[in-house]
Amino acid sequence: MSLVLFDLDGTLVDSGPGIRASVRHAAASVGIAEPTDEQLRALIGPPFPEAFLDVLGVDPATADAMMADYRDTYGAGGMFDASVYAGVPELLAELTDRGDVLAVATSKPGEYAREIVAYLGLAEHVAGGVHGTTFDGRVQGKAAVVGLALAANAPVLAHGPALSHGPGLSHGPGLALVGDRHHDVEGARVHGLPCVGVDWGFGGRDELEAAGAAVVVDKPGEVPAALDALRSAAPR
């Protein structure tokens, strides 16, 4: 039995339409120029409001004002303007059927993430729970969310087989994170975990490889074999 953590946006679901529309609305609410397509792509994945500072170059007060408007728009229905990537339901079913425990670890607020996962019919596959950031700032950033997911699934970790975590990383129980952005790779690394990068999301192969992903796959059907390869390469 292994625990496999999945990012949400850009990994399990294409959440681009709802996020882009909500960001555009937030930008208009504070009177800044509409973000470019490149900026909008860069904004999908990293945590808000920090991403507004980094990608749009706004000041902290403007970022906070954008965050308030974004939450109003996104929470009112924008979050449901998303779709499951082709092949993902089959991937989750295959991993579940073979005994892996799956969980979601996302930089998105957990309240939103749980609603989205349920709305899109994925909840039955994630017995390890849906873990995200908190509105009160108590849990922020990918590394913190991964830590939350690990703590919630401690019994699974106590019995999982080893995976190869790559050069310089520890070799713990059967565990990996699957994600599409460098934030996923970096957040996993904080906990000594390998990251299986996915090329169908918003980051791309170059970003994932530069960040140090253990392997990058092109389609959902390749994830099980990538996890098996990590497990086979682990020291016995």
Describe this structure in words.
- This is HAD hydrolase-like protein.
- It holds the Pfam family HAD_2.
- InterPro entries: HAD-like_hydrolase_sf, HAD-like_sf, HAD_2, HAD_sf, PGP-like_dom2.
- The protein is an alpha/beta fold and 236 residues long.
- Helices cover 44% and strands 14% of the residues.
- The model is unreliable at 162-173 (pLDDT under 50).
Secondary structure elements and pairings:
Blueprint: E1 3-6, E2 13-14, H1 16-29, H2 37-42, H3 50-56, H4 60-75, E3 83-84, H5 88-97, E4 101-109, H6 110-119, E5 130-133, H7 142-152, H8 154-157, E6 175-179, H9 182-190, E7 195-198, H10 205-211, E8 215-217, H11 223-233
Parallel strand pairs: 1-4, 1-6, 4-5, 6-7, 7-8
Antiparallel strand pairs: 2-3
Helix pairs in contact: 1-4, 7-9, 9-10
The CATH class of the largest domain is: Alpha Beta
End-to-end Cα distance, whole Å, is: 16 Å
Q: Which overall shape is indicated by the principal axes computed on the Cα atoms?
A: globular
Estimated structural class: alpha/beta
User: What is the domain total for the residues?
Assistant: 2
CATH architecture of the largest domain: 3-Layer(aba) Sandwich
Strand content: 5-15%
Q: Give, in spatial order, the strands making up the sheet with the most strands.
A: 5-4-1-6-7-8
Unreliable stretches, pLDDT < 50, 5 or more residues?
Answer: 162-173
Instruction: Give the % helix.
Output: 40-55%
**In the CATH scheme, what's the topology name of the largest domain?**
Rossmann fold
- Written as H for each helix and E for each strand, in order along the chain, the element string is EEHHHHEHEHEHHEHEHEH
Radius of gyration: 17 Å
CATH superfamily of the largest domain: HAD superfamily/HAD-like
Average pLDDT, to the nearest integer?
A: 90
Q: Tell me the number of strands.
A: 8
- Give me the number of helical elements: 11
* Largest beta-sheet details: 6 strands, parallel
